[in-house]
Write a structure and sequence with these properties.
Blueprint: H1 2-31, E1 45-55, E2 58-63, E3 66-72, H2 78-89, E4 95-103, E5 106-125, E6 129-133, E7 140-143, H3 159-165, E8 173-180, E9 184-193, H4 218-230
Parallel strand pairs: 3-5
Antiparallel strand pairs: 1-2, 1-4, 2-3, 4-5, 5-6, 5-8, 6-7, 8-9
Length: 231
């Protein structure tokens, strides 16, 4: 009898252990989901997609199986400001990866990553950014890259790339490779065609300046001044 109870008890313990392992496995699968349609309540979700459209505070992404809308959080912290800045730089057809969590039925953006190329005509350039207009689309502003991420480096732009970008003139056709870090920044540039350089002013001899007294030579005027001084 004792051996029978011992066997039953052992079987019950094995069954409980198996049930626990199955539950743990299902929970882990839910937390690690990355399809973009998970609950997100137990952690971060990552979604890869193509930008369809944006508003100042949201992004619509096209996925393999549909479309998803993600929103910036309603806060004034540095992370949210960075997300809003990047949203403002995104353009249709950009391929991005967005990390998000879900709260109160809204998918809130935590981070935006991405990399791509932009072909277009340079419409403006400063010491910090360049505007490029693709053939079909609105002009896009791409910031120049930082040389690093430490406080000492954050104010120093990548000098090697700056020299390449410094060659850009309005009207040039260029292919810019961009990458999203704290913003959408240029990481490489290739010129497809250059506008003709402006011609320097001709060095033709300027016409001789006429004397203030027509017909009078400088020597004659000097003699007249000397005579007047004697009197």
């Amino acid at each position: 009898m004792n051996s029978r109870w011992t066997m039953c008890l052992g079987l019950l313990m094995v069954a409980a252990s198996v049930a626990g392992w199955v539950a743990m496995g299902l929970g882990a699968e839910t937390r690690s989901g990355s399809s973009g349609f998970g609950s997100g309540t137990d952690g971060m979700e990552k979604t890869d997609g193509t930008v369809v459209s944006t508003t100042p505070q949201s992004v619509d992404l096209k996925l393999t199986g549909g479309q998803i809308t993600l929103h910036a959080a309603k806060s004034a912290n540095k992370s949210t400001k960075e997300v809003l800045s990047i949203i403002g730089q995104l353009a249709p057809q950009d391929s991005v990866t967005i990390t998000w969590t879900q709260k109160d039925g809204r998918k809130l953006i935590q981070k935006i990553e991405g990399r791509g190329t932009l072909d277009g005509v340079v419409t403006a350039r400063t010491d910090a950014w360049v505007n490029v207009k693709p053939e079909n689309g609105a002009p896009q502003k791409l910031l120049f890259p930082w040389a690093g991420r430490t406080p000492q480096e954050v104010a120093t732009l990548d000098q090697k790339l700056l020299k390449k970008i410094a060659r850009a003139r309005v009207g040039d056709k260029a292919r810019l490779t961009w990458e999203i870090s704290d913003a959408k920044r240029v990481v490489d540039v290739r010129y497809l065609s250059k506008t003709p350089a402006e011609k320097s002013p001709s060095h033709a001899a300027s016409p001789k300046k006429k004397p203030s007294h027509p017909g009078a030579s400088p020597r004659r005027l000097l003699n007249q001044v000397k005579r007047l001084n004697r009197h």
